[in-house]
Amino acid sequence: MKKKKSQKKKGNFDQDLLRNLPIKERRQHLQKQEKYRKLIPDLEEHLFTSKEVIEIIEKALTKQRRKMTDDFQEYLSFRLSQQFQDFARYNEECIMNSMKQRGEPNYII
Fold this sequence. Notes:
The structure is a single chain. The protein has 3 helices and no strands. The protein is an all-alpha fold. The chain has a domain at about 15-45. This is Akirin-related.
């Protein structure tokens, strides 16, 4: 029987790079890695399929579109009410000036 050569275990590529880094840089890298793991749990374990990515993006776009539409409607209604108030004030001033020129009594308060 032939003995099989013991294959060297392939380590994590990231771990191999870390061994060659100076200690200070190694610590910084590990801190960043921990920070991202906390932000996105189980990142290494879960990969999204293209359908899942499309669904996630569609949901985000729909949410953003809805928010933009609501913001625009709110802004538009504010501007329209402001425009109406300006028009009403202008109209009232025109009527008042017209009545003053004619010498008629002022009933608008």
